[in-house]
Each structure stands twice: as structure tokens, then as C-alpha cells.
């Protein structure tokens, strides 16, 4: 089977990392895979895939991306790639890739099946009526839709008769995670005895990183010897530092920027904070669970499908800082409970192994190819 993955950027974000791991699994299973990135990405944390890939080198800020909403040069490059590779399956990841996939399906002579992987909440990202209409039309043109969580799947309208829909969770390479060496706390000027909170993700408004800083502040006010490591970068980086400075905890905040591998940091931490307003199925929670790190996570998207409330950590309303603090203290100050959560998390994370998730994608692809063309 020949599978072409279409992704927006070669950056180290959850969707792209998962696509890389899925492609590696598919290749090891004997299938031919190729990845096309739509837009150029020149920062130092660019993703290097182990399977063949290329980039169309388009500018995502191009005016053509807004009016008419499609870059003709990029569309041509994608169509040309499909004509050359002649895939059986084209999997588009996220809304930006979806619109190009839907158009190329209409334009190409290649008789492929189009699978759309929805990585988050379509209702959150498409707030304008026109944008929602375009997304709805493009979604209906797909032969298959994969949602990363039950919560995400529930947001879609009723499927057209020809379309197959599945919930397939985010998977990860558990062996690679557990084999990582923990980062040295001294390298981040963090005492060995401190309680390390970790935030992993973009420092952008939808992820609400400022909440994590406020949680750090409230914990220290209550006497906790807490430090916060923020793994990621984004437009709110300076705001995070300024808030920490205003709250008197800047000496306990570590802004690492984007890191190539999250696992070594997770292994050296005590508690995972997820403070987002929207999520699909957060890969960072899968990784922390696999390493036995309890979490306090926002009750959004498919979070409850990986963070088991009262079993692997706690799930709280996204904007309830006081409850975040209460639950964090409950975990950190109770070693038997911490150990119980840690063991349950590692056991539950086995359900999200790439060796469990990969076959589910392969089964979907085979089902799509078995339908009438």
C-alpha cells in the first residue's frame, strides 16, 4: 500500500510527531510512505522524519491563503506530488491540509482515497460562518474521517453515506520514551528536592500558559517548594515571564523554548500541568502517563480519555485556578496517592502505544480501499 501524508509544517508539534511515528510504523509493516509539508519552516526545531518527505516551501502568511483561500502554486505542487507518487491513500492532517486535499481529489486523475485526520475541535478553530462552511464541505468530500478523541468525533455533523468515520487515539513510541535519560535538574538551576511542575506545549492563547504561571504562584504562596518548567515557545513567552516577575516567582520559572525531546524533561519532573482551552487528545499527556507522571489537566476535548480523573491524576475546569492548586497539592503531598497514580498511568498508557494505534489506521485504510471507487 502507498500512503501519502499531508501536513502543514515540519515543526515539532503533536500532529507532526505522531505522523512521523505512524509513517515509521507503516514502513516497518511493509508499506510505502511519503510526506509532503505545505509550508516552509526555518526555525531550529524543524522535524526530521526517518521516512521520505519534502516541502512545497510555500508561505503560510501569503495573501492567497486568505483570498481566495488557496495558493495556486501550492495546489499545483501537491497535485504534481500525487501524480508522481500515485498513492492509494492520502491522509490530510488538520484543517489547512484538508482544503488542499479536497481540491486535489477533484483535480487528480489518481484514484486515491482521502482520509482526514481531525486533530482538534473544528468548532473552536473555525468561528466564522464562511470558514465553517468551507470546512464542512471539505470534510464531506473525504472518504474517511479520523478523530483523535470521542469528544472530537462528536462535534462533526452526520456523515454522508459514502464516508467512514473512526475514533483513533493518538499513539506514541513507548519504548523510545521509557528509554530516555532524565535531564539533570542542575542544568535548569532547579534544586533536587524541589517539586517540579511541567508545562509542555505552545506558549499561545489557546493553551493558556499564563494559567500555569499563576498556579506556580499560588502553590508557592501556600508554602510549596515548586518550580515550573515550560517546554515550548510562542507569542506569550514574554507575557509568561512578566507575569512570573509580577508575582515574585520569576526565579522559579524556567522557559526552555522548544525542545527536541520532551521525555527527558518529563522524567525529571513531578507533576504535569495542562491548562488549555481546547485540545484533541494531547500527546504530551500520553507521554507523561507512559512515564508515570501524574497530571492535573483541563477538562477540554478528549483529555478525559487519557487523563483518568482520580486514577492517573485529576481533571478540572480549565479556568479554575484554585482547584488546580488544590489538586496539585493533593498529589504532591501524598506519596502513597502519587505512587498509585503513577502506576495506573503507566498501565493505562499502554493503550496508546504506536503498536496498538498503527494497526487501527491500517485497518481503516484497508476498509477505505475495499469500498467502491
Give a verbal description of the structure:
With 373 residues, the protein is of the alpha/beta class. The protein folds into 2 domains: 2-171 and 353-370, 3-Layer(aba) Sandwich (Rossmann fold), CATH 3.40.50.2000; 179-351, Glycogen Phosphorylase B (Rossmann fold, 3-Layer(aba) Sandwich), CATH 3.40.50. The protein contains 14 helices and 13 strands. The protein has helices at residues 14-28, 72-85, 95-107, 122-125, 129-141, 150-154, 174-178, 209-221, 237-246, 263-267, 283-290, 321-332, 335-349, 354-370, and strands at residues 2-7, 32-39, 53-58, 89-93, 113-118, 144-147, 164-167, 195-200, 226-231, 253-257, 271-274, 295-298, 313-316. It has a 7-stranded parallel beta sheet with strand order 3-2-1-4-5-6-7, with helices on both faces. It has a 6-stranded parallel beta sheet with strand order 10-9-8-11-12-13, sandwiched between helices. Helix 9 (237-246) links the parallel strand 9 (226-231) and strand 10. The radius of gyration is 21 Å and the shape is globular. The mean pLDDT is 92.
